[in-house]
């Protein structure tokens, strides 16, 4: 494979096919002595022919909802593929924060909330404003400059993106060796957890997709591409509002890029073909493709493509067509399937041109989402005599 760079010197996997290797004549077979008495002979070792590496990648069979949503791709706990290798898990060298501890003489830690690939999140009180916030601490001690810059640029992106469907980021700072962010404290669960609990109704799925689309419409209108849209970055509050989170991998016309040359950005299950190959450059249609994968999950309970290794998985997005959603869920209305398949088109120009256009398409689905399941028609009852006479309006009396 070769790599190509965009204007921010981001390199992507993709391009040339593998060259076939010349067949090497194997050495003469070595005659081994017979096995010792009482020991069974060792089974013969299967050899993979060289041309097997050149065959197109084929997806494995469909799995159940629980199996589909279980992480199988080797990557960071946060689920993001960076620079061709998983982000290292948080190191235990730096001790975690404890309740009552103060960060930057301003944020008092209340309790631990969770941990991702490179950060730990706590509930904290902003002593200056007297409000509760989420304190996100970079958990890698002595982190390199690029990782710290990517962590801090979330604030720069968020300052241009004040919107009800986008997580608010308040502050960034350093306390000793700890780099931290403070963001609004949310009550609810992310969409990944919700998908593990149960399948969404059509109305729920359509509402969440609409909220995510509106968030992307706002971001794209201000020159920001998210580049990592996935259920783990879509948070559903207890009041039913969806919030788009984590702009650490975002690309913006306002913020200097921090991506190293040769890096691959995104999560393999949700990467658009151009995000894998680098041609054409990423665009708003890239985020819409990822949202199409999310929509596929919401409506079918499965991912469109799966593979145990990240690179073949990414190339399934480039090479293969997804199984139509109605094949997996026959009761799904056909207009819903059309929207999903249009979002998952391989060429960006074949998808919706903008998030605004997608929002209009989703709005046209509401009558079908609010319509209940088709009633079951009972067998007609045999006619019987009646003493009641139908009135002219069709009623009996």
UniProtKB/TrEMBL annotation:
<protein>
    <recommendedName>
        <fullName>non-specific serine/threonine protein kinase</fullName>
        <ecNumber>2.7.11.1</ecNumber>
    </recommendedName>
</protein>
<dbReference type="InterPro" id="IPR017441">
    <property type="entry name" value="Protein_kinase_ATP_BS"/>
</dbReference>
<dbReference type="Pfam" id="PF00069">
    <property type="entry name" value="Pkinase"/>
</dbReference>
<dbReference type="GO" id="GO:0004674">
    <property type="term" value="F:protein serine/threonine kinase activity"/>
</dbReference>
<keyword id="KW-0808">Transferase</keyword>
<dbReference type="InterPro" id="IPR011009">
    <property type="entry name" value="Kinase-like_dom_sf"/>
</dbReference>
<dbReference type="InterPro" id="IPR000719">
    <property type="entry name" value="Prot_kinase_dom"/>
</dbReference>
<keyword id="KW-0067">ATP-binding</keyword>
<feature type="region of interest" description="Disordered">
    <location>
        <begin position="1"/>
        <end position="53"/>
    </location>
</feature>
<feature type="region of interest" description="Disordered">
    <location>
        <begin position="372"/>
        <end position="397"/>
    </location>
</feature>
<feature type="domain" description="Protein kinase">
    <location>
        <begin position="107"/>
        <end position="365"/>
    </location>
</feature>
<keyword id="KW-0418">Kinase</keyword>
<dbReference type="InterPro" id="IPR008271">
    <property type="entry name" value="Ser/Thr_kinase_AS"/>
</dbReference>
<feature type="compositionally biased region" description="Pro residues">
    <location>
        <begin position="23"/>
        <end position="47"/>
    </location>
</feature>
<dbReference type="GO" id="GO:0005524">
    <property type="term" value="F:ATP binding"/>
</dbReference>
<feature type="compositionally biased region" description="Low complexity">
    <location>
        <begin position="373"/>
        <end position="390"/>
    </location>
</feature>
<feature type="binding site">
    <location>
        <position position="136"/>
    </location>
    <ligand>
        <name>ATP</name>
    </ligand>
</feature>
<keyword id="KW-0723">Serine/threonine-protein kinase</keyword>
<keyword id="KW-0547">Nucleotide-binding</keyword>
